[in-house]
From TrEMBL:
<dbReference type="InterPro" id="IPR036445">
    <property type="entry name" value="GPCR_2_extracell_dom_sf"/>
</dbReference>
<comment type="similarity">
    <text>Belongs to the G-protein coupled receptor 2 family.</text>
</comment>
<feature type="transmembrane region" description="Helical">
    <location>
        <begin position="222"/>
        <end position="248"/>
    </location>
</feature>
<keyword id="KW-0675">Receptor</keyword>
<feature type="transmembrane region" description="Helical">
    <location>
        <begin position="149"/>
        <end position="170"/>
    </location>
</feature>
<protein>
    <recommendedName>
        <fullName>G-protein coupled receptors family 2 profile 2 domain-containing protein</fullName>
    </recommendedName>
</protein>
<dbReference type="Pfam" id="PF02793">
    <property type="entry name" value="HRM"/>
</dbReference>
<keyword id="KW-0297">G-protein coupled receptor</keyword>
<feature type="transmembrane region" description="Helical">
    <location>
        <begin position="115"/>
        <end position="137"/>
    </location>
</feature>
<dbReference type="InterPro" id="IPR017981">
    <property type="entry name" value="GPCR_2-like_7TM"/>
</dbReference>
<keyword id="KW-0325">Glycoprotein</keyword>
<dbReference type="InterPro" id="IPR000832">
    <property type="entry name" value="GPCR_2_secretin-like"/>
</dbReference>
<dbReference type="GO" id="GO:0007188">
    <property type="term" value="P:adenylate cyclase-modulating G protein-coupled receptor signaling pathway"/>
</dbReference>
<dbReference type="Pfam" id="PF00002">
    <property type="entry name" value="7tm_2"/>
</dbReference>
<dbReference type="GO" id="GO:0008528">
    <property type="term" value="F:G protein-coupled peptide receptor activity"/>
</dbReference>
<feature type="domain" description="G-protein coupled receptors family 2 profile 2">
    <location>
        <begin position="112"/>
        <end position="253"/>
    </location>
</feature>
<dbReference type="GO" id="GO:0007166">
    <property type="term" value="P:cell surface receptor signaling pathway"/>
</dbReference>
Length: 253
């Protein structure tokens, strides 16, 4: 699916197809009319038909889910009392799609995430070393170096938040379901520091422009404005983004 709206329309179409299939066959008699049965259901991926109690049915995995192997089989169990099996942790009706996962692709994606983490750790270490060097020699503390320091600090925070994201959220998808609001907040924090990186790069260019064109600008005044631009300005943009994000993730259409 190209977009979330495309996926939503596609799933609605699947639900309508499931509904039509069920009611087109509803007049047909089944061999277990007098026994308990689990009613048909669309679980968001596949359409499961009426099923005799005490049996497990299988069908091919959905072909529109990234990371699923279509040729594998998904399963759904109808209990002896005529109700669908519920997951013991969530207490919700549960279909077994564990066999659908393409393990080779999963291993590949996990290795990519691991390399992301290693790359960010390497970047973080080099940034910290650079900051130690800058701060150890006060003779280097001109306005240009102070801007470098702030840029490196913002880049360091960006590395830290991305490491946490890949380590504790991407590699542990259950975190999204257990702490959805916390994940949204962390997503916003990531984008704040990323945006701050770009603003500090802008400050680098602005300082060069002032040094070449304006010339007579007090360093103390300039650095104050750079601090506002680098750390405060991103808050306005991220604030608007966060407002829309929370609006659309709290049940609004």
């Amino acid at each position: 699916m190209e977009t979330e709206d495309d996926l939503r329309r596609f799933l609605k179409q699947k639900l309508r197809e499931c509904f039509n299939i069920h009611y087109s066959n509803s007049s047909r008699a089944t061999s277990w009319n007098d026994t308990a049965t689990c009613p048909w259901v669309f679980d968001g991926y596949l359409c499961w038909p009426d099923t005799e109690a005490g049996t497990t049915i299988s069908q091919n995995c959905p072909d529109f889910v990234e990371g699923f192997q279509h040729t594998n089989l998904a399963h759904k169990t109808c209990l002896g009392n005529g109700t669908w099996f519920r997951h013991p942790e969530s207490d919700r009706e549960w279909s077994n799609y564990t066999n659908c996962v393409d393990h080779e692709e999963l291993i590949f994606r996990s290795s990519i995430n691991t390399w992301y983490i290693r790359g960010y750790i390497t970047s973080l270490v080099t940034l910290i070393v650079s900051l130690i060097i800058f701060m150890s020699f006060k003779t280097l503390w001109c306005t240009r170096i102070k801007i470098h320091i702030q840029l490196f600090i913002s880049l360091s925070f960006t590395c830290i938040v991305w490491i946490i994201w890949y380590k504790f959220i991407v590699q542990n998808p259950d975190t999204i379901f257990e702490y959805p609001k916390l994940c949204v907040i962390w997503h916003i924090v990531i984008y704040y520091f990323m945006l701050s990186n770009y603003f500090w790069v802008f400050c680098e260019g602005l300082h060069l422009h002032l040094a070449l064109v304006v010339v007579f600008v007090k360093d103390t005044i300039a650095i104050r404005w750079f601090l506002v631009i680098g750390w405060i300005f991103p808050l306005f943009y991220v604030g608007f983004y966060a407002s829309f994000l929370f609006y659309f993730t709290t049940g609004h259409p």
